[in-house]
Amino acid sequence: MKWLQWLGLPLGIAILIGLVVHNGAHDVLRVIGTAGPVLLWLVPFHALPLLLDAQAWRLLLDKRAPLTFLWWTATVREAVNRLLPVVGVGGELVGIRLARWKVRNASEVTASVIVEVFVTIAVQYAFSALGVVLIVAATGDGGSLRTIVTVALALLLSAPLPVLAVFLVRRGGVFHAIERWAARLLGTENPLMQGLDGKQLDADLDALMSRTGLMFRAFFWQLGGYMLGAFETWWALALLGHPVTVGDALAIEAITQAVRHAAFMVPAGLGVQEVAVVLLAQLFGVSQEVAFSLALVKRMREVVFGVLALISWQVAEIVRTRRAVRGEAPLGVQPGAQRDAKLPAVATVGASPRGPKRGPQHDQVH
Questions:
Q1: Is 352 helix (H, G, I), strand (E, B) or coil?
Q2: pTM
Q3: Which residues are CB-contacts of 282 (< 8 A; sequence separation ≥ 6)?
Q4: Residue range of the domain that includes 101
Q5: DSSP bridge pairs for 355
Q6: Does some domain include residue 83?
Q7: Is residue 39 assigned to a domain?
Q8: How much is the mean pLDDT over the chain?
Q9: Looking at residue 10, what is its pLDDT?
């Protein structure tokens, strides 16, 4: 997968440069300059779709973590996946690490993230299908129809992979088998094997995915986040002087998301996302200059929002590390839990041979 990324990066940069040259940097900058600083409002607006995504994740965690904390974690997950050279799952691994600051059970947190990824895949297919329907309804010419048929066939051909993955997970024993294979390969004493419990993870996944009502609630919360995210396209085009209908904006956003996820080997979808936005926007009568301006505005919003999220993550890690060095409760851990963890060690200091003296305070439930 690494070589695919190294191959995809220069390809994406070349596509982006080609688009700039083809559309004319001067004309694009003129269109963006006409909208002015008001475009910066798109940065904080992106927090709203992520809030709906975080609510879906909170439901999968049985509401054991605050929504604001999961929202922040969702911003970091997205930033890692979109701005750092990871193979599509780096953000999920970071999300598991951060979520454990609030929910200590690693198996349950991991199960919630895995199920959330499955839900996200289902949402992407539904959202893409909606985009195909909207484009077919809005455009009737043969060239556009051929393009949409190609996208629809690509979605259908790729569908068996996630369906197979869900089937294997629901069948059970997948992660337990992976754990046994890793133990034979690395040895049971390897540090990477410490804390792994594939059997428990399989059980937690089965328990979570058997709750059909919960799956549907998470699905619709995420779908709402995707549809709200399309408002960014609608608003940006309005600010750039070429307003479109809500349905047009939904179609542009839906197919752009589908293309970007299909081109996962290109880091951050660089170039690929821009081509998709330009081509799709032109289907709805948007000029090349405005369409490319939209693509650049979306990319700039992504970079600014993502960089802020990554900085906040590093600050949180530094604060947590410093508090741990000073012996305080780490960031995200309740002080009472930290105090309880220290009680056995404190009780042994100065204890008599008959054992530590107990008082009423030892019987309290913190």
A1: strand
A2: 0.77
A3: 288, 291
A4: 2-31+48-321
A5: 352
A6: yes
A7: no
A8: 77
A9: 47
